[in-house]
Amino acid sequence: MAGHSKWANIKHRKAAQDAKRGKIFTKIIRELTVAAKSGPNPEDNPTLRATIDKALGANMKRDTIDKAIARGAGNADGDNYEAVTYEGYGVGGVAVLVECLTDNRNRTVAEVRHAFTKRGGNLGTDGSVAYLFSRKGQMYYEPGADEDALMEVVLEAGAEDVETNDDGSIEVTTEFTDYMSVKDALTEAGFKPDNAEIAMIPSTTIPLDKDGAEKVLALVDMLEDLDDVQNVYTNADIPEEVMAELG
After folding, report:
1. What's the pLDDT tens digit per position in 224-236?
2. Of 4, 10, 22, 229, most Cβ neighbours within 10 A?
3. Is the dihedral of CA 123, 202, 108, 212 positive or negative?
4. Which of the 8 DSSP states describes residue 29?
C-alpha cells in the first residue's frame, strides 16, 4: 500500500504507552512475576528473558525487576494470576486479540466485553481470530540504517525475514524462540533496534480510512487502559498519511 509505514504505527503506539508509563510498569511487573514461576533463571526461561528485555527497554530499574522475579519464583501469596486471551472484532471487521493476566476471570471478561461494546466492536468466541496471528519477534530500525550491512548480520543470525518499508524503515522478523539470539547478534554488530518486541503478527491485514482508524485506536486505547490487559493486537493496516492526520 502506498504510503504504508509500520514504523509510523509503532511510534504512535509507543507515544500513547509513554503517556501511561506508570500503568505500563505495573503490567510489566505482573508479567515478570508470572514468567518467573516457570523458573527464575532467564537463561533457561526464554519467556522471562524476553520480559526482562522488555522491562529494561521501558527503563525499569534492575532492582524492581529482580524483586518481581523473586516474588514470582517464590510463588508469593496474592500473585495467583493466570493468562487468558480474548478475541473479538472492531469496526470494519478488524480482528482484535487481547492478552490478559488476571486473578478474576469474571471481572476481566466483563471489562473487556464492555470496551468492545462501547467502541463499536464485539467479543468473539475462542478461536474466532487467533488463527490469524502468529507469535514472532520483531525489531524495527528508523530510516537511515545501513540495509546491506544489517542484512548480512541478519542472515548470519538466522532471522526469518527482513523488510524495508516505504519510508526506509527496516523491520526484522524472527521466530519467537530465536528472538533474543538474533537481537543480541544485531546489537553486538552495532545495530541496536529502535524498537524490539515479541508480538502476535497477523497473516492478513485490513486497511482503514481515518474514521475506521480512529475507532479501532479508541478501542485499543480503552482495552490497554484495563489493569488486567497486558497486550492488544489487531490486523488493522493504517496508512502513514492517515496516521499523520490522526496526529
Report:
1. 999 999 999 999 9
2. 229
3. negative
4. H
